[in-house]
Design goal:
4% strand, 11 helices, mainly alpha, globular, two-stranded parallel ribbon, 280 residues
Length: 280
């Protein structure tokens, strides 16, 4: 569906990490970061559902709780407006309380100059040529991680912080995790508070919420804020988007019922088909 971008209004086009690296001042930057938070939020719900249903732990690379670090860093760099930042925090405050904080946060600390060196060593063209990863930008990100996120999450979760300048031994990290006693907190201790539910019914309710009510939780992102132009498509752009999107090959009818996609034998198909996804 990204092939449709040239036909779409600028605000309706796809925008991802590569776009951000090449065009960080683009009007879609704020929507991009809000969508990244929503994706991390959705992933975190899946992780909680897995834990509740299997008893198995889940390891995530970053999560919904640390997402604000990117918003603050991008705002400081001038890539996101104050209005868009305010909308982000309206959404954040409306959603984050529905989750259960992690048991453990692992932070791998690397000095900014070394981060820049490793970006060059990865040899991803759009990262190397990007004007985003300046010393100031990465220093701001480091500040928000250490002075905001780790301090805030450390009041609930256990923290393991490693100097990863020369990398490290993963086995040592695993051994450190195994030595943590996550049950060593009484009912008045703020650590692990989210995980001290009082009875079986509360656990049952939490399991149902994360397993079966994910769509309901995601509706919490629908906060009507129409006062920030870069977050809103005007009526003309929405009309153009719908016109282009629903007339694209394969979008007119249900999946496997579109002749423009090479589908055949339409008259005799009786099997119920899933609706075609409209995700970009």
């Amino acid at each position: 569906m990204r092939k449709l971008d040239p036909q779409l209004p600028v605000g309706a086009r796809s925008y991802d990490e590569k776009n951000f690296c090449t065009e960080p001042n683009h009007e879609n930057t704020a929507n991009f970061q809000i969508m990244k938070y929503k994706l991390r939020y959705s992933q975190y719900i899946d992780a909680l559902a897995h834990l509740m249903n299997t008893g198995q732990g889940v390891v995530l690379e970053r999560c919904a709780y640390s997402d604000f670090v990117f918003m603050e860093t991008m705002h400081n760099a001038g890539y996101i407006s104050k209005g868009a930042r305010d909308v982000y925090y309206d959404i954040y405050k409306n959603t984050i309380g529905e989750l259960m904080k992690p048991h453990l946060v692992i932070y791998l600390d690397v000095p900014v100059p070394l981060v820049q060196q490793r970006i060059k060593e990865r040899k991803i063209p759009y990262e190397i040529s990007s004007k985003v990863f300046t010393k100031q930008y990465l220093s701001d990100m480091e500040y928000f991680y250490k002075q905001r996120y780790l301090k805030e999450i450390g009041s609930h979760a256990e923290l393991l912080i490693y100097d990863w300048s020369s990398y490290g031994d993963v086995e040592v990290v695993v051994e450190d995790i195994e030595r943590i006693d996550f049950d060593n907190f009484d009912k008045y201790d703020p650590k692990m508070k989210d995980w001290r539910l009082t009875n079986e019914w509360d656990w049952n309710t939490a399991r149902i919420r994360y397993t079966s009510e994910k769509d309901d939780l995601l509706t919490l992102f629908m906060i009507p804020r129409l006062d920030v132009p870069e977050l809103v498509l005007n009526a003309h752009d929405v009309h153009k988007l719908n016109q282009v999107w629903w007339n694209a090959p394969g979008m007119k009818y249900d999946k496997e019922f579109n002749t423009d996609m090479g589908d055949t034998n339409l008259l005799f198909k009786t099997k119920k088909q899933d609706y075609r996804s409209t995700t970009a």
